[in-house]
């Protein structure tokens, strides 16, 4: 939620804008209501910032203040900001009838080890300039038109050779309290020191660089669902227009209710008529019944302030026109990114929950998991439950160390991404989609669930027993349709569908968003009911039986190996030949093993003895 407070001279009126309730007019005095409003919004809003305009409002119109009244209003707000430990930052000043109007940003001060984090997913068709733009933004050097900037972001050799992103990349852009970029690449290697950037920043923008090629669509879908972006930056090449995966990625962002802003690149090499045609097609797409956005071409700082203050309403869609070679309009994009605030509020008093989106094995450290804290507070040495495993069991695990943006910290809050080093567990026992959760929640894994889905595209029809990949948070697993409330589904149909995972149970919530995908088939929906859950007692009993059978199998194999290598007494031989006590061999080895055991028995039985078995 973005709040706009308009400060006026006595008698003071405050008009607060909320995208849910609209404008609310309140009459108050400086010492009372204004202080209450500022304190309430800065202290209790998760984003820690709000917009404020100093002007005079009468007869339904906005009028400027003279110099004396303006200074008095600013002094009053400045004193209130000091009381609530916030900074007052001037965004713009404009003249109007009767005087001046100023727009300010009030931003809460953060500690040395803390910063606001906003996640922005970067999507668009292949060759739209996604990685190039991120290289220019994060490293502060313009591109040479031949891929110089993007080379600094690629993670794999084949990405450098092809120039195409194939994995989910993460890059950061830090802003200080005044809104200035603090990214300073190393003068020798050209790399970024994430720890120094985070220490100097009051806000960090985390860019989730996703693949644009259709071949890597499942990786892009996982990045959109598993990394929980606050906003989505859709890249469009001005010379190519709306082609390929552009509409696919836009539809995915809209289905997940992620606000979208558009960046049109390569305006330095595009003819004017082609650029205008691209903008016209883009505006038509955003206004279409499926989107229903209000496109706004951002051309100056006034447009940036207006669009940023109304962006969280999800109706306004800013459009930036930039060049990575000349740097044109790059300052407007940076200003807009600085004004973005996290969309979701989190309560630290709730039980902790953390979803895992990647695993690592670090030499000298051990097993490390990375992901997003969904709610609650996780501290160093906390005991959490990790799971579910293939049997649906959650095991206790201790947090050995915590890193946030490569910086060691003692705790993480809801909405923050982090990495945890875990004690006494191997990387092979952890997979993407697992969660670390507070024991207070008593989690249960789920095999089956119901969801309300909307089929975005399918070439034929969907019927029961159809299988496709389900993306839900960081979960990525194939599920089967067991039943649905319609005979078959086609493009554009809605239905209540009963799913079942085919491999392992997962930890799910009601009201979670999911994406259902297989080839060119795409559907989105929301989980409405959890049906078949694995009880903790049953899962642990099954795990114990499985471990016992493995132990018996291991001991039997050792006995069989021992009997083949040394003479045994008749009693021992008879025991080793009981059904189920020997190790099972594959193929021809099974018969060879039988003959070997027979030979061993013959050599072990004394001459003239009678077999009584």
UniProtKB/TrEMBL annotation:
Residues 538-550 have a biased composition (Low complexity). GO terms for cellular component: cytoplasm. InterPro entries: EF-Tu_GTPase, EFTu-like_2, GTPBP1-like, P-loop_NTPase, T_Tr_GTP-bd_dom, Transl_B-barrel_sf, Transl_elong_EF1A/Init_IF2_C. Keywords: Cytoplasm, GTP-binding, Nucleotide-binding. Gene3D superfamilies: P-loop containing nucleotide triphosphate hydrolases, Translation factors. Residues 538-613 are annotated as: Disordered. Residues 566-576 have a biased composition (Polar residues). GO terms for molecular function: GTP binding; GTPase activity; translation elongation factor activity. Residues 583-594 have a biased composition (Basic residues). It is found in: Cytoplasm. Residues 115-345 form the Tr-type G domain. The keyword Glycoprotein does not apply. It comes from the Eukaryota. Its main location: cytoplasm. Promotes degradation of target mRNA species. Plays a role in the regulation of circadian mRNA stability. Binds GTP and has GTPase activity. Belongs to the TRAFAC class translation factor GTPase superfamily. Classic translation factor GTPase family. EF-Tu/EF-1A subfamily. This is GTP-binding protein 1. The gene is GTPBP1.
